[in-house]
Amino acid sequence: MSVTIKSGREIELMKEAGRILAIVHEELGKIIKPGITTLDIDRKGEEIIRSYGCIPSFLNYSGYPASICVSVNDGVVHGIPRDDYYIEEGDIVSLDAGVLYKGYHSDAARTWAVGEISDNAKRLIEVTKQSFFEGIKYAKPGYHINDIGSAIQKFVEDHGYSVVRQLTGHGIGSALHEDPQIPNFHQRRRGKKLEPGMTLAIEPMVNEGHYDVCWLDDDWTVVTADGSLSAHYENTILITEDEPIILSI
Ligand code: MF3
Ligand code: CO
After folding, report:
1. Residues enclosing ligand 1, CB less than 6 A?
2. CATH classification of 8-244, choosing from 3.90.230.10, 3.40.50.450, 3.40.190.10, 3.40.50.970?
3. Which one, of 125, 148, 153, 126, lies nearest residue 137 by Cα?
4. Which of 18, 20, 101, 196 has the fewest CB atoms nearer than 10 Å to its CB?
5. Domain residue spans of the chain
6. d(CA 58, ligand 1 centre) in Å
7. pTM > 0.90
8. Ligand 2 centroid vs 204 CA: distance in angstroms?
9. Which DSSP string corresponds to 63-90?
């Protein structure tokens, strides 16, 4: 599949999908407390998404069984919500959500602190978020896909952390995953030229320790191989003639 350039109408729908997704994250951030289960988060997330007339993008995607991915501590992404997994004080909780609005998707992730967390965990969450903003400095015409990942990797490694290599960001639109793939690390190829009308999900996944990850037996949950903490920050953005527009914030 080639990279799609969105029309004015498509961009309007993606803006609305992004606006709703930003609300979903804001609301979910408020309910994360010690004692709730990861399934409680999923239920609430699905309820909010449907209350806006949207469909959860992840539900049944390639067989994924929930609406929100909930990945705790050494969980990197794609954690499956459970009714017997309780959130505890000191945890860091990554939530990844997608909404489908009138045929168009938006995809975004945030990592939340539960109560008091370690200084290192705080710094990991901040560096991960900031690496997204470093990356999108290059999300405009005149640059290539690789410029985004190179900037993310440099910022993350300058702060002593590592970027996950086995998962990437992606184009997004009427499909949740469209071309191109957007690695969060430097590659030899420059990759596609960035052009106005492209919509992209940029999603740095940052590990405290080594970048290597592994999959649990549920075939979804991705965790750090060395057991170190991991954080995730993602938004859907629109490439314009000038600065990108962050749709899901
Ligand atoms: N942001 C994640 C991704 O782009 C969400 C996908 S979860 C899935 O891979 F369940 F939909 F696969
Ligand atoms: Co994504």
Report:
1. 58, 61-62, 64, 69, 78, 96, 107, 170, 201, 203, 234
2. 3.90.230.10
3. 148
4. 196
5. 8-244
6. 6
7. yes
8. 10
9. G---SEEEEETTEEE-PPP-TT-B--TT
